[in-house]
Sequence to fold (89 residues):
Amino acid sequence: MNDITRLSAQGQVLIPQDVIDRLQLAEGEAFDVRAHGDEIILRRLSKSPRRSIAEVRQSLRAIYRHKGPPIPIEKLSWSPDVDDPSLDN
Fold:
């Protein structure tokens, strides 16, 4: 469906409500604005929903979960530069 909108004196363009609803746009969303010939193209910058820190942490833990036996704390803090006896001269 094509809608007609007008440029305001302040340079604003009203996006029709049916487009806002269909694309689930929210106040404050950012758009990339491009001129292509005599056309203006608005492209939403981010389509992905915002996630809480807890959701991001949970997904990262699932990706980087250690799948082997428990690792002693001594091995976690081991550094080849400091702790490798073969490097001592």
Summary: The first helix runs from residue 17 to 23. The mean pLDDT is 84. Residues 11-46 form one domain. The helical segments are 17-23, 53-63, 73-76, 80-83.
